[in-house]
């Protein structure tokens, strides 16, 4: 698997340090509230697991699985719910945890949905932000790293469901895309 990677953009240790830093910030911000932290499957799974353990405050976790129509690398903008939340967001302070914001279409949909469901507040925390990909006006409250306008994999992010288990963020060799 590792031989498919052209370049590592963000090393495992950098992700770990950044996650600790964000966790400390969120510990301060949420020490007196009881937020509902929502991980967006599947990509946010590793970040969600590491980030929530870096927050020393009471919180509740839930997961939502949404998928966008279109092929793997170009989103069409339509989002459908594959798995909905178990809990109600009504009156709750919501923190959405994402692995990446690219076009912003997924988060645009989720933020509107949670407001529609009468959440008290909705905040966005993302490990990666790719501002050059933006099609919807979404600004994260906390972003770990800004990445260039390239397709990245690892630490939850896939290409054709592979590479999610890489411990770092990287770019694939071009022949991997050509071969599929
Ligand atoms: O800002 P956008 O352009 O909407 O892209 C961001 C979304 O794309 C990825 O999910 P994907 O739909 O590939 O599903 P996955 O998490 O299961 O891989 C990622 O995890 C975000 O949820
Ligand atoms: N794996 C992966 N999924 C994405 N979804 C939106 N942008 C990206 C990206 O750069 N990589």
From TrEMBL:
Subcellular locations according to the entry: Cytoplasm
GO biological process terms, semicolon-separated: GMP salvage; guanine salvage; hypoxanthine metabolic process; IMP salvage; purine ribonucleoside salvage
Cofactor: Mg(2+)
InterPro entries: HGPRT, Hxn_phspho_trans, PRTase-like, PRTase_dom
Reaction(s) catalysed by this chain's protein: GMP + diphosphate = guanine + 5-phospho-alpha-D-ribose 1-diphosphate; IMP + diphosphate = hypoxanthine + 5-phospho-alpha-D-ribose 1-diphosphate
Domain of life: Bacteria
Matches recorded under Pfam families: Pribosyltran (PF00156)
EC number(s) from the headed UniProt entry: 2.4.2.8
GO cellular component: cytosol
GO molecular function: guanine phosphoribosyltransferase activity; hypoxanthine phosphoribosyltransferase activity; magnesium ion binding; nucleotide binding
Record domain Phosphoribosyltransferase: where: 15-159
Recorded metabolic or biological pathway in which this protein acts: Purine metabolism; IMP biosynthesis via salvage pathway; IMP from hypoxanthine: step 1/1; Purine metabolism; GMP biosynthesis via salvage pathway; GMP from guanine: step 1/1
Keywords: Cytoplasm, Glycosyltransferase, Magnesium, Metal-binding, Nucleotide-binding, Purine salvage, Transferase
Purpose of the protein: Purine salvage pathway enzyme that catalyzes the transfer of the ribosyl-5-phosphate group from 5-phospho-alpha-D-ribose 1-diphosphate (PRPP) to the N9 position of the 6-oxopurines hypoxanthine and guanine to form the corresponding ribonucleotides IMP (inosine 5'-monophosphate) and GMP (guanosine 5'-monophosphate), with the release of PPi.
Family: Belongs to the purine/pyrimidine phosphoribosyltransferase family.
Protein name: Hypoxanthine phosphoribosyltransferase
Biological source species: Salicibibacter halophilus
